[in-house]
Amino acid sequence: MAEPNLVKAQGVDPVAWQRVTDLQDQLCADGLLPACALFVARGGQTFGQHFSGRQSPAADSPPLRDDAIFLIASITKPVVVMAILKLVEEAHFTLNDRVADLVPEFGRNGKYAITIRHLLTHTSGLPDMLPNNRELRASHQPLEAFIEETCGIATDFPAGRSVQYQSMGIAMLADIIRRVTGRTCSQYLQDAFFGPLDMHDTALGAPNTWFEGSNPKADRIAQIRVPEEQQDTDWGWNSRYWLQFGAPWGGLLTTPSDLAKFAQAMLEGGAFGSVRILSTSSIAAATQNQLQAFADIPEPERRTRPWGFGWRLSWPTHSSSFGDLVGPRTYGHWGATGTMLWIDPDQQLFTILFSTEPHKTSGRHLIRLSNAIVAAAH
């Protein structure tokens, strides 16, 4: 928790900030969130870190560790997209290149016209999850099997005609990264972002080393209260299979303080201190409404539910908004495991909220926390 003088130095109302941490503690004490970790920063300085709840949903679980690692689900997506933009900066391809030109087998079943731009904006027509997603996970299939299946299916609508959230589009981005760089998506993210930013507790899929030794890093992973369909399975969010799978659409493991470095780099136009990971132009493109360029998408959709490249922009009337009080240029992402990141460039402010309650039941509570955070910061 931030010291009172630091809170004041950041222009934050200490009484209002206390309201934030009290609410967080109460949500965990009431069992609405098994655990919650909060990190807030403005102008490059944090004025709030707070950890509440338990390391697992079990009643006899020890308290949440202050070095806890979280599976952040779909917040993974914009990180992978920024890796694609880094490859665009390096002139490996353009966003209007066809996916099938880089992954020839993808062009089957009417998918030849899909471009990389479509994958970055959820306009490809690909599904969120494959029809046999559960079967693939139950048989512990690797990422390559999901990519192969995606290459074989047809889309739900012609590319560029509508918007449909598509995790399988992000899966294809991982394959593009592999083919262009000769490295897995996980390794490329490590080389391009996590290593340079000293994000030592971050990985797309936990490596074997996290499970080794007398004090394995994997013990720091906060356990999620999984939904009913994952209970009594060996492929759910808490399983070793899924923790090591490295889903490019939702497999990132990190801590609040690690992800804060990436968020700060986004705020600083692609740099964190003396380390530059992306150009200012990439950040600007990724965080403006890219749906405006699609003439066939209905205007209300383009205007009220905008997407950047990988980043969801502010949807104030949506049930999973970033909050009722965030600024109009706020961008970020949610995660199905109960996580949220939003970044407000106008206020130079970002908030990281990691819980272990699935989004379907935690979303409203995270919005309440977000509202209290914004009120304290202004």
Description:
The structure is a single chain. The chain is α+β, with helices and mostly antiparallel strands and 378 residues long. The protein has helices at 4-9, 14-29, 76-89, 99-102, 116-120, 133-138, 143-152, 167-181, 185-194, 240-245, 256-267, 280-286, 299-304, 359-377; strands spanning 35-42, 45-53, 70-71, 203-204, 252-254, 271-272, 275-276, 312-313, 331-335, 339-344, 349-355. The two termini are 19 Å apart. The relative contact order is 0.17.
Keywords:
single chain, 378 residues, alpha+beta, 14 helices
Order of helices and strands: HHEEEHHHHHHHEHEHEEHHEEEEH
Number of strands: 11
Inertia-based shape: globular
Distance separating the two termini: 19 Å
Strand order of the largest sheet: 2-1-11-10-9-8
The number of helical runs is: 14
Helix content: 25-40%
The structure class reads alpha+beta
Concise synopsis of the structure shown:
The chain has 378 residues and is α+β, with helices and mostly antiparallel strands.
Break the fold down into its secondary structure elements and pairings:
Blueprint: H1 4-9, H2 14-29, E1 35-42, E2 45-53, E3 70-71, H3 76-89, H4 99-102, H5 116-120, H6 133-138, H7 143-152, H8 167-181, H9 185-194, E4 203-204, H10 240-245, E5 252-254, H11 256-267, E6 271-272, E7 275-276, H12 280-286, H13 299-304, E8 312-313, E9 331-335, E10 339-344, E11 349-355, H14 359-377
Antiparallel strand pairs: 1-2, 1-11, 3-5, 4-5, 6-7, 8-9, 9-10, 10-11
Helix pairs in contact: 2-14, 3-8, 3-9, 7-8
